[in-house]
């Protein structure tokens, strides 16, 4: 039996209504210029614009940063639908079980975890009929389980696509630390002999969003231009970030470098307070889009740290692999990492 793996990443931006530029054109000008095209997601007469490019096509209704946003809402539903649609061929019914990753502070607080998981399961479990870019989508979510997001990286590091442990057995017993730095959260997690090591586990609202907000303030002060958080995040990730505005083309490289330096110092201080020099860990894993941006800074502080090949999607990969281990009676399992910066998902499907 073979396994097919698919992955997707969709920026967590949601706009209202339909873009009004589809039938507008300036002719055959700069055809080589590429822009992000958002998804149109609709159900029961509602229509939303989802993903990168949404802010250029419609009025943004959601860049929500509060933890409770994970539970329910039209914005979250449209993001989940856009994500699931990437795994559906034609109008076929996709039946799957989902392993979802939630921030460490959520999973540490039983009351908070229930307040999020109860409404999430209520609307997400069962059959869904919707449209993405006019394409009919049918999905049946058979079951949902949740674990802390950075545990996904642990399983991406240790499990294969069939949910089997592939590293030396000794690695199951040693202390492993995981730093998951995303857009809005910084999660620290440690595991030893299959148990969570609480002393080194926790989380704070201190992701790469802080660097984006620093850049937003500087751009507003220097050029009078307001950026969204996601647009600022995009500039942070570009090698040659150019802002085109009333003063001309402005290179933001110095501003992005300063913003990232400030974010790296904040993350470094949190890590030092929680982990010290980190040498108590046999393996120290860095994951998340924020960690990827701060890779050089983090490795200066923790040269023994390891980055998985795809730190942005690492949690989703591991969630899917652990899902395969937990959901042995289903053909397709999906690992869903509903980040504040983007929704990441990996689908593993067994083929006869």
Write up what this structure looks like:
The chain has 352 residues and is an alpha+beta fold. The protein folds into two domains: 278 residues, 2-Layer Sandwich (Nucleotidyltransferase, domain 5), CATH 3.30.420; 52 residues, no CATH class. The protein is built from eleven helices and 18 strands. Strands 1-18-17-6-8-7-3-4-2-5 form a ten-stranded mixed β-sheet. Strands 9, 10, 11, 12, 15 and 16 form a six-stranded mixed β-sheet that branches. The protein is globular, with a radius of gyration of 21 Å. The termini are close together. 45% of the residues are buried.
Describe, in short, the structure shown:
The chain has 11 helices and 18 strands.
Return residue spans where pLDDT drops below 50 for at least 5 consecutive residues. Answer: 23-34
| Fourth-level CATH superfamily of the largest domain | ATPase, nucleotide binding domain
Widest sheet: strand ordering: 1-18-17-6-8-7-3-4-2-5
Taken together, the total number of domains comes to 2
Helix/sheet category: alpha+beta
Rg is 21 Å
Mean pLDDT rating: 88
* Known CATH architecture of the largest domain: 2-Layer Sandwich
- The proportion of residues forming helix, as a percent range, comes to 25-40%
Straight-line distance between termini: 5 Å
Q: How many strands in all?
A: 18
- DSSP helix count? 11
Strand-residue proportion? 25-35%
The CATH topology of the largest domain comes to Nucleotidyltransferase, domain 5
Biggest sheet, in brief?
A: 10 strands, mixed
Helix and strand element order: EEEEHEHEHHEEHEEEEHHEEHEHHEHEE
Gross morphology is globular
- Assigned CATH class of the largest domain: Alpha Beta
């Amino acid at each position: 039996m073979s396994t097919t793996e698919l992955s997707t990443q969709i920026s967590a931006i949601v706009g209202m209504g339909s873009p009004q530029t589809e039938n507008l054109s300036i002719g055959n000008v700069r055809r080589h210029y590429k822009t992000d095209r958002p998804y149109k997601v609709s159900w029961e007469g509602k229509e939303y614009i989802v993903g990168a490019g949404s802010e250029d096509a419609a009025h943004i209704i959601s860049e929500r940063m509060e933890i409770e946003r994970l539970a329910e809402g039209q914005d979250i539903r449209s993001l989940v639908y856009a994500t699931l649609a990437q795994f559906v061929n034609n109008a076929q019914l996709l039946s799957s079980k989902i392993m979802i990753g939630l921030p460490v502070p959520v999973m540490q607080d039983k009351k908070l975890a229930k307040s999020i998981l109860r409404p999430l399961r209520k609307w997400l479990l069962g059959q869904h009929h919707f449209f993405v870019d006019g394409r009919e989508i049918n999905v049946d979510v058979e079951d949902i389980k949740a674990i802390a997001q950075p545990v996904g990286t642990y399983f991406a590091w240790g499990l294969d696509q069939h949910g089997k442990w592939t590293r030396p057995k000794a690695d199951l017993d040693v202390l492993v630390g995981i730093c998951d730095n995303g857009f809005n959260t910084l999660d620290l997690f440690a595991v030893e002999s299959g148990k969570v090591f609480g002393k080194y586990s926790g989380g704070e609202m201190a992701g790469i969003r802080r660097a984006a907000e620093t850049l937003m303030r500087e751009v507003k002060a220097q050029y009078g231009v307001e950026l969204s958080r996601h647009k600022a995040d995009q500039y942070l990730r570009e090698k040659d970030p150019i802002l085109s505005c009333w003063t001309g083309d402005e290179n933001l490289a110095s501003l992005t470098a300063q913003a990232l330096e400030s974010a790296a110092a904040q993350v470094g201080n949190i890590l030092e307070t929680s982990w010290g020099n980190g040498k108590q860990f046999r393996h120290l894993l860095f994951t998340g889009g924020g960690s990827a941006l701060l890779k050089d800074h983090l490795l200066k502080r923790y040269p023994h740290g390891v980055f998985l090949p795809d730190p942005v999607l690492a949690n989703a990969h591991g969630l899917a692999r652990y899902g395969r281990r937990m959901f042995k009676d289903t053909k397709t399992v999906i690992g869903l990492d509903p980040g504040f910066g983007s929704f990441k998902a990996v689908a593993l499907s067994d083929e006869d």
